[in-house]
Amino acid sequence: MRVLVVGGYGGLGTVICQQFAEQGAHVAIAGRSADKATELAEKLRAGDATALGVSIDVTDPAAIDTAVATVVEAWGGIDVLVNSASKLITVPAEHFDPAQWASVVNANLVGAFLLSQSVGRHMLERGEGRIIHLSSVRGDAGGRMGFSAYGASKAGVNLLVKQLATEWGGRGVTVNAVAPGFISTDMTAELATDEIVKAIPARRQGTPEEVAAAVRFLASDDAGYVTGTTLYVDGGMSA
Predict the structure, then answer these.
(1) Burial class (CB in 10 A: 0-12, 13-18, 19+), 190
(2) Judging by beta carbons within 10 Å of its beta carbon (0-12, 13-18, 19+), is residue 187 exposed, middle or buried?
(3) CA atoms 228, 82, 189, 183: torsion sign
């Protein structure tokens, strides 16, 4: 299995890369920092994994095509795309600068489409592939101050996977999303954990490993008939 993980270093991305590597997959780590991507690839190779690091800017179609071409040239193709890249700016809606809003939507939603398009072309030529985007529980429900751009962009991702699934489902490519809830990562470290946990039916934070397990399921043969869906890993927050 040849896996491209965009946003593959730091937070959820690192754990996703590690779990795929442990399964014996070839793992390409992509992110804005080529140094960080290469550093994680070296760590995975030290554990006998096959890995490489590439630079990518998810808002730049040319940069995406270059990164995808690098992986395809190295391994002959991409079987699984995992898009874990995400941008969060929290500002009350009435004060959100239009440029800030656009930067969040471009990174989270436009980037998801451009990645799907670039990798999808290769998958469609071969007649098979898995595309998995990291969405968010905030793409399904509002209510948290400052999340207007982030929530709207993730809601767009949820609809994007449905649209692409309808277009590509009969051509061997599945497209899904995983929507984490309150997961223990650097992004949530400064939030009021105790108060948030009280509102979660499971009464705890989730772990990156639990999110990665959902991603691996959607990438597996067992999920061959699953497409156009958003799988919530949120302890019941969206219930």
Answers:
(1) exposed
(2) middle
(3) positive
- Token digits of residue 10: 């730091």
Give me the residue label for tokens 């949820």: 158
Residues recognised as catalytic: 150
Q: pLDDT tens across 14-62, in order? A: 999 999 999 999 999 999 999 999 999 999 999 999 999 999 999 999 9
pTM exceeding the 0.90 threshold for the entire prediction: yes
133 exposure class (CB count in 10 Å sphere: 0-12, 13-18, 19+): buried
DSSP-based three-state secondary structure for 32: coil
Cα separation, 214 vs 170, whole angstroms? 23
DSSP secondary structure code for residue 85 in this structure: -
pLDDT of residue 146: 86
Q: Cα separations (Å) of 154 from 23, 46, 50, 53, 59?
A: 29, 35, 31, 26, 16
Q: Residues 3, 82: contact at Cβ < 8 Å?
A: yes
Q: Which amino acid is at 72?
A: V
How many helices (H) and strands (E) would you count in the chain?
8, 7
